[in-house]
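If you are new to this repository, start here. Below is one unmodified record pulled from the training split, so you can see the exact layout before writing a loader.
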Amino acid sequence: MLLTRADQAIRAQLIVPEQRELFDYWRAKSVDGRYPVRADIQPGELRALLPSLSLLDVVAAGEDMVRLRVRLAGTRLRDYFGVETTGHFLDEYDLGDQNAYWDAAYREVIGAGRPAQGVIALDAWKQPNVFQFWLRLPLADAEGRIAMVLGHDAFLQSEKAHALAERANLRIA
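And here is the target side for that same chain:
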């Protein structure tokens, strides 16, 4: 399957090899330019990535408002966040200054219907020396609406992670 220019741009910005692997998998599951649906994503085909994957349900909360409920959060996410997020809504967590950052990221994926990626320090989770390299991919329902978000998060710490974040020209908050 050929990558569009937008796909090539997103893929080129992915620093973490596992994120490129997930992005390629997601693109391969896209048929006729439509996003994959949840049933297209087979956990057995992503076994090595499972600890870093998340699956979020898009829940309507009003006319133009949505909430995101964590259907699945891999064990690596729990390890870094220090809490089990599965079954919780993202807005239950106070992310301080990072709330606007994440709102914009999810608006890009859900509202604009585009993959999004970035990097952010885990300051809100009391781990300022750890950087979260994230990827969010839309999953559609049968009608083509964005119904879920597939995510991958890699956590890197050290000066090397900081240098990678700067080199990638990604947003650091």
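Two things worth knowing about this chain: The CA atoms of residues 17 and 124 lie 25 Å apart. Strands lie at 53-60, 66-73, 116-122, 127-140, 146-157.
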